[in-house]
Amino acid sequence: MVYMKNVKVTEGGKKFAQAVVEILELGGVKYIFGHPGEQILPFYETLRRSNIKHILMRHEQGAAHAADAYARISGKFGVCIASAGPGALNLTMGVATAYKDSVPLLVITGDVPSAMKGCDAFQEVDTSTVFEPITIRSSNIKNPEDGILKLKEAIELIRQNKTGPVHLSIPRDVWDEEIDYSKVKEVILPDQMDAEELNENIGQAIKLLEKAQRPLIIAGAGIFWSKSAEKLSNFANKNKIPVSTTYHARGVFPDDNPLFLGMIGVRGTEASQFAGKNADIILALGARLSERTMTGVGPCRIIQVNLDKKSLKGDINIEEDVGAFLDRVVDLNVRDSSNWLDELAEYARYYEIDTSFDDVPVKPQRAIKEILDAAEDSIVVDDAGSHTTWVTLLQKIKEPGTFIFSGGFAPMGYAIPASVGAALAKPGKTVVVIVGDGGFQMTLQELATISELKLPVTVCLLNNSSLGIIKQWQKMHYGDTYQVELQNPDFTKLAESYGIKAIRLNSPGEIYPAVKKAVELGKPYFIEVVVDKDEEVPLPSWFIK
Ligand SMILES: Cc1ncc(C[n+]2csc(CCOP(=O)(O)OP(=O)(O)O)c2C)c(N)n1
């Protein structure tokens, strides 16, 4: 049970919209990413006079992706808003993306006036039913008192547990209603795992870890959310336990630590795959153990520590923040496992990718290597497509929160709007976007947002005139391609029309200096690289079905 202490609301004759703004201000919200509409206008009117800056995205999907990226980079929760019906439904792609990767988001949508609900009113849709499967909680607000309670609960849920988006749907009339504070109930969050069960499971986990002969830690993004990267390093170093990370957790354990084995799962390194298949005990910390990660895991006992109850599937489950768990095991001493470490030393922790091609059109792996080298001090935001594989295989990550991508839901079109949230989350840091020509055309309208805010975002568009990864799958499964060639516009002219400086590159030697220069300028910049349309990404044998 958790009682929310930190958020107070000034009492007396206050409209709900005003109270919402005050609660958000007190909750430390600096930015709200959104797009207005009739049913949320009272809230916009109040926002106009607040300290919170509203970022006008050009599509609600962009608002959700920007808020998601803001959260992923800052480690705080993101906020996105939209109007009723179409506005709300446009948010869903971004909300689902955040849900899949357990990103804390507060999602607020307007709704038709209470009296019209259920009357098939203009723009009416049962938003909560739509949002229910893609949020940890979705509520229809009935009155201001209920709204205050649900908002405080939402903030507390996402701030403390950080396991996904919470949605509130607020009818137009409720925004303007005055609150009767005597009717506002106390916030009570559902209990987490029963304390007795938790202690028993922790006891069992410690016993197992103490006698492990071939232990492996799988570190997930929960380490980032709980800001426990240092605790993880201390624990692994002290006990000499090797560490693999999931796709999302890249950066939570230093690439240059000899205990680091690289990523595990579908894109796993040799060392991680071997360790996962041969470990006797796996300690999964803040990882949801998706089917993609589990392709790298063999028969063994799994201790899973995760605040997100829905992801617990280990032999011993500990529903707890990973940082709190690591505090509990600080004195633990596992057996000497030097034989196991010697065995693992035989296997590669990095991918061997040849990028030395000088061909024109440029090979995508060469282009991406040049871009990543030039972006080494920037936040890199990646989209979904064949370029994602090259980025995954080539990128070395120094610290958490410097690389984000569209994750477990993997929508094309994530990267451009996400760059807006990423840039605002870390002022002073530059952002480099890597996106394909297909994904770019799904959310390119956010170039307007980037340009208007003069954000230090360099967009690197890899133009292979096709939906590259789908083309590759079609060839592999059906021997031919269908509906995957793209007739593209002149991308540089398009970017220039948004007021963004743009260039097109055709040869490999031009890429590094161009990206470096763009990053140093610290202004919106657009670089199109024309790449080989027939180059395919390597597929690991366990990925080919
Ligand atoms: C919104 C959405 N629609 C469809 C897909 C399926 N899909 C995944 S990657 C891809 C092609 C991406 O093409 P492009 O952005 O040009 O990148 P490339 O593969 O060529 O590097 C498609 C259609 C998806 N992930 N998301």
Description:
The chain is an alpha/beta fold. It has 22 helices and 18 strands. The strands form 3 sheets. The chain has a 6-stranded parallel β-sheet, sandwiched between helices. It has a 6-stranded parallel β-sheet with strand order 9-8-7-10-11-12, sandwiched between helices. Strands 14-13-15-16-18-17 form a 6-stranded parallel β-sheet, with helices on both faces. Strand 3, helix 4 (86-100) and strand 4 (105-111) form a beta-alpha-beta unit. Helix 1 packs parallel to helix 6 (144-160) and helix 3 (60-74) packs parallel to helix 4 (86-100). The radius of gyration is 24 Å and the shape is globular.
Task: Summarize it.
By secondary structure, the chain is of the alpha/beta class. It has helices at 16-26, 41-47, 60-74, 86-100, 127-131, 144-160, 172-176, 195-211, 222-225, 229-239, 270-278, 291-294, 322-328, 338-344, 364-374, 386-394, 415-425, 437-443, 447-452, 468-478, 491-497, 511-521; strands at residues 31-34, 53-56, 78-82, 105-111, 137-140, 165-171, 215-219, 243-245, 260-263, 281-285, 301-305, 316-318, 379-382, 403-405, 431-436, 457-463, 501-505, 525-530. The chain is 38% helix and 16% strand.
